[in-house]
Amino acid sequence: MLHQLPKIKHLDSGQFFLIAGPCAIESEAMAFEIAEAVSKICMELKIPYIFKGSYRKANRTRLDSFTGIGDEKALNILKKVGEHFDVPVITDIHSDAEAAIAAEYVDILQIPAFLCRQTNLLVAAAKTGKFVSIKKGQFMGAESMKFACDKVIQSGNDKVFITERGTTFGYQDLVVDFRGIPVMQQFGAKVVLDCTHSLQQPNQSAGVTGGKPALIETIARAGVAVGVDGLFLETHPDPLSAKSDGANMLPLDLLPNLLKTLSEIRKSIKIRN
Questions:
Q1: Is 222 exposed, middle or buried (0-12, 13-18, 19+ CB in 10 A)?
Q2: From the CA atom positions of the chain, what is the Rg in Å?
Q3: Could you say which architecture CATH assigns to the domain 2-272?
Q4: How many CB atoms lie within 10 A of CB 54?
Q5: pLDDT at 219 over 80
Q6: Dist CA 135 CA 112 (whole Å)
Q7: By the 8 A CB rule, do 136 and 113 touch?
Q8: Structure confidence at residue 57 (pLDDT)
Q9: Which of 93, 116, 168, 217 could cysteine-pair with 138, CB 3.0–4.6 Å?
Q10: Cα(271)–Cα(222) distance, rounded to whole angstroms?
């Protein structure tokens, strides 16, 4: 299936694929800096790479939270990144009308976790013919994601990813149930592990989501060991200054060593199999 994704590379390397980039597009310079750094290490390790960036953040806790630099401006930056670095690009959509608009600029449409049951949104994304990545709702069991996946497939599009991003555990924490990864792989979709959002701490009293970025490597190592198809990581040159989700992003300068470690784990599992 991934061979149908434009500009994807290194599919014969036996590595997991990587979806990585900033939470939100803040500027062209920032997007290019991240894409260049991640592309370089992925080229070295022969990891198939997809650039991620949200052109708009629609699900914010507070009214005064950053939502974006403007839809058209951000979408054009995403398109430029894909063209300049020759990589596929993914972004979120939040409404039926956004599907066709975003599809003009990117290769993969991502359905946010809170919206994974929205039938019209899934159908609209499917009908663009683009790849569709559905994030598993924090409130959903792995088995239930079959029906979200089926909505896309039954709408004539079998190019589906499912992304595990943790399950609500109390009011302010998430937990990853790794048993769900092989369950969701049975649905015929590629399964991705979101190593950063899985470590969010939502519903903080300040109205800003917290996180545990020190555990990103732990989550990622476990996912690769379980046999996940892809990894999702949000990264930023300076997470403390990021305008969205800085509390759970990986500092960009830590990414190369992390990917080298994960690449070696993947190789060892492949040999064992």
A1: middle
A2: 17
A3: Alpha-Beta Barrel (3.20)
A4: 26
A5: yes
A6: 6
A7: yes
A8: 83
A9: 168
A10: 17
CB atoms < 10 A from the CB of 124, how many?
A: 21
Does residue 110 have a pLDDT over 60? yes
> Is the model's pLDDT at 203 over the cut of 80?
no
Token pair 């953040």 is found at 57
Closest CA to 194 of 174, 169, 170: 174
13 in Cβ contact with 43 (< 8 Å)? no
CA 225 and chain centroid, separation: 19
CA atoms within 13 A on the CB side of 249: 24
Question: What is the C-alpha to C-alpha distance for residues 241 and 45, in angstroms, rounded to an integer?
Answer: 29
Task: Give CA separation, 33 vs 28, 49, 235, 253, in Å.
Answer: 9, 15, 11, 11
State which H helix or E strand residue 228 sits in. none
What pLDDT, on a 0 to 100 scale, did the predictor assign at position 232? 97
**Percent of the chain whose pLDDT exceeds 70:** 93
Is 53:31 a contact under the CB 8 Å cutoff? yes
Angle between helix 28-45 and 71-85 (nearest 10): 30
Q: Do residues 148 and 160 make contact, with C-beta atoms less than 8 angstroms apart?
A: no
Whether the per-residue pLDDT at 63 is higher than 60: the answer is: yes
Q: Is the pLDDT of residue 71 over 50?
A: yes
Q: Is the pLDDT of residue 11 over 70?
A: yes
Residues in the chain: 273
